[in-house]
Amino acid sequence: MEKLSMAATIFCAVVLAALAAAAGGEAAVVEHTFVVHEMNQTHLCNTTKIYVVNGQLPGPTIDITDGDTVVVHVVNRLPHGLTIHWHGVRQIRSCWSDGAGFVTECPIPPGGEHMYRFNVTGQVGTLWWHAHVTCLRATVAGAFIIRPKGGRYPFPTPAKDVPIIIGEWWELDLVELDRRMHDGNFDDNPLSATINGKLGDLSNCSGKPEESFVLDVVRGKTYLLRIVNTALFSEYYFKVAGHTFTVVGADANYLTPYKTDMVSVAPGEAIDVLMAADAPPAHYHMLALANQPPEPDLQIPGFVSRGLVRYAGSSHNNNGLPVPTPLMPSQHDTMPSYHFHNNLTGLAHPDRHRVPMHVDESIYFTLALGSICRNGTKTCKRRRGPETIVVATMNNVSFRHPTNTSLLERYYDGRTSGLYTEDLPDHPPHPYNYTDRALIPPGPLEEALEPTFKATKLRRFRYNTSVEIIFQSTALLQSDSNPMHLHGYDFFVLAMGIGNYNPKTDPKKFNYHNPQLRNTVQVPRTGWAAVRFVTDNPGMWYLHCHFEFHIIMGMATAFIVENGPTPETSLPPPPPEFKRCGSNGLTQP
């Protein structure tokens, strides 16, 4: 009976979505039902319990038009709580629907239901949605497509658009993975990369290749690939043998067309590319390869997934010829990522691309690791010893996430005493040579900078404030890049560079004419990125690195944006469907 009920629910959601899409030019209400449940799936000779929506991996695609309203009914059939975050949706005056666990809402309890309702206006392109409690986003995730009104793109209309969801396959239960990382254990790794849930033929079980994702194409046609990185741990390089891409969008914003043979996509990013099927009809491999810093950083295995581009009319066995495989950069070469991201520029738009030329608030965030003592004191043996827990920091503060209440709810009610403070530092407390790679391995320089502390420190801004943030990746205990994601906002990426940011010379590099407009910026390994935005969306907005281990370790905070002078510039009360936190840290029935 339960299976019939789930099938009927899914069918109704599909019909409603199709009717809304058929409505055409006028704004529609697009409804979906997400049933989140456990499911067994077998890969690499082992059957693993995974968490999915509506029996799908990746999850269902939300497909709307600019101006539509989205309604998603979430039914939680898991044995633990979760929320769903609509990654990159601006949520103008709808912060209550952002879905950030313990930031804008408490998790939906086991057996519970919740309805998200929000409007999407002024955004076109690819975003995505994912679970925002524990590590569940490794499998509870899907594409969120926003089409332009009237179907008019600033580039030739593609024959077809195809989500390319790059992820990871974990044999370890994701809830257990989360528990281990909260306890300071970061030794676990995925077994493979995935493309649209498929491990690809480079992985095998008893000599039998795993199933690959196959993209069927017709020669002479052009395809829009919507590439999203949902992985917990790694940035990925993506290539198709014998083909090139034209990058046309990122994070639901148009870009100046940029030609390349490789896309670099960090966790949290969504990159739109056109691929012309202009090669001789045959089979061609696509490849997704994780990149990680070289030694002396902690080394993890290389993750890769291989798919196939298959031309119509090509022979089943590719005429007996080897299938071409793209030549990839070294797994430990992170410079192609830097060059890719640094070459992107925004497609100038008179309404949206107006970079604030003045700065009201200037912030310099150092992104680093540190450690705290397990015994709760400030005196213990450092250097990644058993007496310490390694944590991640912003300006030497490791964010303590709430576990039984919602920051937004308490802020709105005026009940914040003892929950958080609003004194997150604007600059690091002790300047040092942030990108000195002698700080990566344990040593006297590193040991002096390693001690830190946990606290729930936020930052408050008045409405309509022009904010500039310099994100500085450091080499303290590691030299990872840092994909920094801000909820509720797009920001202008004015510049990025390698090494320490120089406040005297680097502002001369700022692009005020056509910068990228993004919700996630890939701060380069031992480098920096400068972003700027105006606080025009009141609420409580989570800022964090999109590497899952960095989130759990504390590389996060939240921005409070105060109300403006009118009802139209203020956060409204919670909508009728919003469910408040109970005493157990889950939403009330």
UniProtKB/TrEMBL annotation:
PROSITE patterns named among the record's database cross-references: MULTICOPPER_OXIDASE1 (PS00079), MULTICOPPER_OXIDASE2 (PS00080)
Spell out the subcellular localization from the entry.
Secreted, Extracellular space, Apoplast
Q: How is the cofactor bound?
A: Binds 4 Cu cations per monomer.
| Major localisation | secreted
Q: Could you state one GO cellular component term attached to this entry? A: apoplast
Q: What is this enzyme's class at the first EC digit?
A: oxidoreductase
UniProt feature coiled coil, ranges: none
Q: Where is this region: Disordered?
A: 565-589
Q: Where are the transmembrane segments?
A: none
One Pfam family here:
Cu-oxidase
Q: Which reaction does it catalyse?
A: 4 hydroquinone + O2 = 4 benzosemiquinone + 2 H2O
Looking at the keywords, is Oxidoreductase present?
yes
Q: What is the name of the protein in this document?
A: Laccase
Q: Which organism is it from?
A: Hordeum vulgare subsp. vulgare
Record gene name: LOC123407265
